[in-house]
Amino acid sequence: MNPSSFYVDPRHRVSDISDTGIHLRVFSADGMQHAPVDYAHQDDYYMFGFIESGECDIHIDFNSYRLTAHCAALVLPGQVHSFVQATGLNAYILMIDSAFIEETSKRSFEQYTLGTQTVELSPEQQTELTSLFTILAGKLAQTGKHPQALALHLSLAIIDIIGEAITSKQTAHSLPQRYVEHTITFRNLLKQHVEHSHSPSYYARMMNISLMYLNEAVKGTTGFSVSQNIQYEIVTRAKRSLIYTSKSVKEIAQELGFEDYAYFTRLFSKTAGISPTDFRKNHK
């Protein structure tokens, strides 16, 4: 039997869940309207979660988060995530096509998720989100109607409130804007070129700035050096392939630009604290 038959390609597309680019899932402790997705997967859309009461544990890009009452969470397109467990959970998850998200908001979300995926909300923001999600759920539940325009306006209002909470936190922990801009540019280039180069100076040259300055900006924003960010990206990509493809460790290493398979294994083991083979076994 082909080993790949044991694997399901867990890439969720917005077209699979909605013909309007907007979808809402409601979780209720009294009887969930939807079952949580408990396997590691990626989406090509944004997800905005709001915990009305109870708590749950989730994994996003192999980091663990506990979400408690009256907080929100953000998952970007392409991030690997999964539901772990919940207690008394009443929550909403808004799934929306990235085409509806403004570029300035995308950059703000990208910057924010360099540190965390959870969002602290003020009491006023909590009340507003509860009302908006309740109205949106009611409108989308109406059979025989297609309230696309209203659903979009409600969805964008929800995103604006979560974005407002993110902006207030970013302002409270402000960094020089040029640091943030350089870091986001570097991270975007890294995602595009990590298979071609693992050299910090390669990215500094692409950005036409000195490596010393790039390191200063990236470390100031993320807390880690350019080299550490490169290693994290490599290991994250490798983990994704180990979990949901049947490719060998050697094949994954080659795809990530490593001619020396043994060196890749050492780098992965040092960064992740576990060998690639054992990581795959633990996450089957």
How is this fold's topology laid out?
Elements lengths: L10 E2 L1 H4 L4 E6 L14 E2 L2 E15 L2 E5 L3 E5 L5 E16 L6 H10 L5 E3 L2 H19 L6 H25 L4 H17 L6 H8 L3 H12 L3 H19 L4 H7 L5 H12 L3 H7 L2
Parallel strand pairs: 1-3
Antiparallel strand pairs: 2-7, 4-5, 4-6, 4-7, 6-8
Helix pairs in contact: 2-4, 3-4, 5-6, 5-7, 8-10, 8-11
Mind telling me the C-alpha Rg? 20 Å
How confident is the prediction overall: mean pLDDT?
86
Low-confidence segments, given as residue ranges, are 1-9
Helix content: 40-55%
Number of strands: 8
Percentage of β-strand residues: 15-25%
Number of helices: 11
Secondary structure category: alpha+beta
Gross geometry: globular
Order of helices and strands: EHEEEEEEHEHHHHHHHHH
Distance N terminus to C terminus? 18 Å
The main pleated sheet reads as: 6 strands, antiparallel
At a glance:
The protein has about 280 residues and is an alpha+beta fold. About 50% of the residues lie in helices and about 20% in strands. Helix 2 crosses helix 4, helix 3 runs antiparallel to helix 4 and helix 8 crosses helix 11.
Overview of the molecule:
It is a single chain. By secondary structure, this protein is α+β, with helices and mostly antiparallel strands. The chain contains 11 helices and 8 strands. The protein is globular.
